[in-house]
Write a structure and sequence with these properties.
single chain; alpha+beta; 6 helices; globular
């Protein structure tokens, strides 16, 4: 397993599909995982330090685990099958709970705890991305990045609680 960190949530253009971008902690590869809008919001909220008035589902899960006297020790991205990423929540004592990758990441950021990715997943789906600081030195790239941020902020401004119902 290779430790990764959440870079952030992005909107892929032109499809406007949200994705979460992970990066090897000690490497150059990135792992883009396409996710749903509710999960994108859950990840972005915690990264931006936004605390909703009432707990979201991921906050509730963290609270339930703590109320049961347990602790989440790590999250693992274990496999990818037909573009579907599988993950596990690892509780103290070695208890494993199967999870969607997006939910596992949203929970891990709230605890916080380390996030690991199977080497095979990075080998198959990892990509090398140019250094974002270098990339943003280019005015065209900076403009595109600023448009993406603006677009995501507009998306967050329009999100209603009903949007999270299934």
């Amino acid at each position: 397993m290779i430790e990764v960190e959440v870079v952030g949530v992005r909107i892929e253009l032109p499809s406007n599909q949200p994705l979460v971008l992970l990066r090897e902690s000690a490497g150059e590869r990135h792992l883009p995982i396409w996710i749903g809008a509710p999960e994108a919001s859950a990840i972005a909220f915690v990264q931006q330090g936004i605390t909703p008035a009432r707990p979201m589902t991921h906050d509730l899960l963290v609270d339930v685990v703590a109320a049961l006297g347990k602790r989440l020790t790590e999250v693992r991205i274990t496999s990818v099958e037909d573009t579907v990423y599988h993950a596990q929540l690892v509780l103290e004592g070695g208890v494993l709970v199967s999870s969607r990758a997006s939910d596992a990441l949203a929970v891990a950021l709230r605890v916080p705890c380390p996030i690991y990715c199977a080497a095979e997943v990075l080998d198959v789906a990892g990509v090398e991305i140019a250094d974002p600081d270098e990339e943003l030195a280019d005015p065209d790239t900076r403009e595109t990045a600023e448009k993406e941020v603006l677009q995501f902020r507009e998306f967050l401004a329009d999100v209603e609680p009903e949007d999270f119902e299934r």
